[in-house]
């Protein structure tokens, strides 16, 4: 028996660590295949160190390119590894191109797959991730959902309920494990920050690829920086376009390299406000109870709005929303945090996988 995990991009790593640990606790033989979709040390290596992930058994070095070129390289590289390793199950995470390619390769080779973070939907097919989610969920053998709305979305797409397990959110497991290490002081000191500050992360193609959209967004973030200093650990994708749009380093707007996992979450923990277009950051701010303004038209994580600290904003409404959030602090409308976001999703997933490897389908209700 061998379980392979296919990982490639930054958000994959915190989702996978609890599953890898859970399977290790059950003594299941496993290996990580790193596709190399993300390759900068601050987008990849630092996460292996911070999360204690084992060394990959292979790194495909796929790198960047258009969707077609990147996906093609992923398909070729992954087919070779899967044929060589002959895994009993391949586990994939989230909605990135590495996830899509792994699912396609396994479907064609007849290798069963499990999808962690199944059933998220923004209902916006202009998002590359939405396309990936739909394909991945339709081809997976085991689907692990983080929140209840996923169950109805998957049922509506014809996915049999026997395949779907509501297990909670492994990204939140990683956050729970990191909590004792999350100290804002050293990062603040290194960055020379004292007093109240906001953190912003921006990398969605819809926000950063188009010059006009980037300009509108940067003007809005500058509107926030007039109220509170903003620290921007900038994803490589947005660097050039956002700089051209006026996002430049200065005393009220610090543009820095991406931060490692522990440093980033430490900084967020001490922040008065987060502005983001990230998926994972919407969830982490909900758990850390830091107000989060998500600059997007929609979210595939509505539970962070109904049971968390997240609000959707447009660039036009961002500065005023920041004023309100800075005055009010975190407000969770429902009063309680999302169900099963309790730090135990990894072990739940591991138990279902272990049973499945024995030919048993643990009832999704279990
Ligand atoms: C990918 C995911 C996105 C996720 C994001 C997380 C897809 C389709 N998108 O987007 O869902 O939110 O990761 O961070 O899979 N680059 C570097 N160094 C790196 C990696 C990328 O400089 O280590 C630059 C390259 O110029 C590259 C660009 O970033 O062209 C985009 O990288 P890519 O992996 O294609 O997509 P992301 O925008 O990172
Ligand atoms: N993150 C990080 N350093 C940063 C920005 C984000 O460690 O500078 C972490 C963040 O805490 C979360 C993950 O990266 O765990 C989210 O990845 P990203 O925003 O790139 O992708 P998305 O969730 O939008 O797919």
TrEMBL record:
Alphabetical list of NCBIfam families matching this protein: wecB
Enzyme Commission numbers on file: 5.1.3.14
Gene3D superfamilies cross-referenced by the UniProt entry: Glycogen Phosphorylase B
Organism of provenance: Herbidospora solisilvae
Classification lineage: Bacteria, Bacillati, Actinomycetota, Actinomycetes, Streptosporangiales
Highest taxon listed in the record's lineage: Bacteria
Sequence similarity: Belongs to the UDP-N-acetylglucosamine 2-epimerase family.
Name of the protein: UDP-N-acetylglucosamine 2-epimerase (Non-hydrolyzing)
Keywords, comma-separated and alphabetical: Isomerase
InterPro entries per UniProt: UDP_GlcNAc_Epimerase_2_dom, WecB-like
UniProt GO MF annotations: UDP-N-acetylglucosamine 2-epimerase activity
EC main group: isomerase
Occurrences of domain UDP-N-acetylglucosamine 2-epimerase (ranges): 28-353
SUPFAM superfamilies: UDP-Glycosyltransferase/glycogen phosphorylase (SSF53756)
